[in-house]
Amino acid sequence: MRSIWVTCALATISAVVLEAQFGGVLDKARRRVEEAKRKAKPVTDRAEKAAATYAAWSPEQEQQIGEATAAKMIAMFGLANSPALAKYVNLVGASVARNASRELPYRFGVLETDIVGAYSLPGGFIFITRSAVEGMENEAQLAGVLAHEIVHAAERHLETEVRGKKTSVWAIEEAKQQVNTNETPEFLRKRAEALVQDLFNTKLSREKEDGADERGVQLAAQAGYHPAGLLEFLKTMEEIQSKPEGQRATNQLLSTHPPFAERVERLRPIVAQAGNQGQTNAPRFLAALK
Question: Residue 235 belongs to what domain range?
Fold first, then answer.
């Protein structure tokens, strides 16, 4: 199996976690705001604004939107203060993303929260919570979950979902101002907040979620991991959710995803077809959690 490791640069202690997980996304977002201050101008053509609301995002817009929204997520939850874990998650994620259907600068971060979840933002920004990682048993499970989110990012699932719904928080904010590079700092902030709200409240179509599960299994297997990783993690989540003390941690994930049991049953034949080969790397995973 070809090597699944890539290099990941780390900076000084207070900036180490941010740099390892997102390469200074907060600094980039701040620079965007400063640039917007210099370029801001009044926009009066409301018809043009409304038309732009439902136009596909350009690659530049996708990255800008992803950076601003990632910065908002980091401000809300904070990143896990573990440079070693951040580096490890980035290495696993990068190895899986090498086979993604669309090339993006994929970046991975670990959120410090009791919520069990993983999130995909525009532009290849992928978050997973520390609680989700701690609920896993091996590297194949981590790879499977990250692969699911990579598919969402590569296929622009969140973007197409919120752009297609005029009632989404994002669409309402977008209708207030034309999408271009001359956005005001206040609008940048509102846009990030709107997309985060949609992220936590929008249930993607069953077709998108099933597709992300299926192609996520295949993506992880292509990277050399055992294809049952995602399936095993979903089974663990099903067990946790069945207990009263575990419902709070899993409720948010279930509010936007199909039931765990249904996903498990649908994945069984897909995993069986993928075969019984691939690495789980359990010792390396457990060492990274220490």
Answer: 36-289
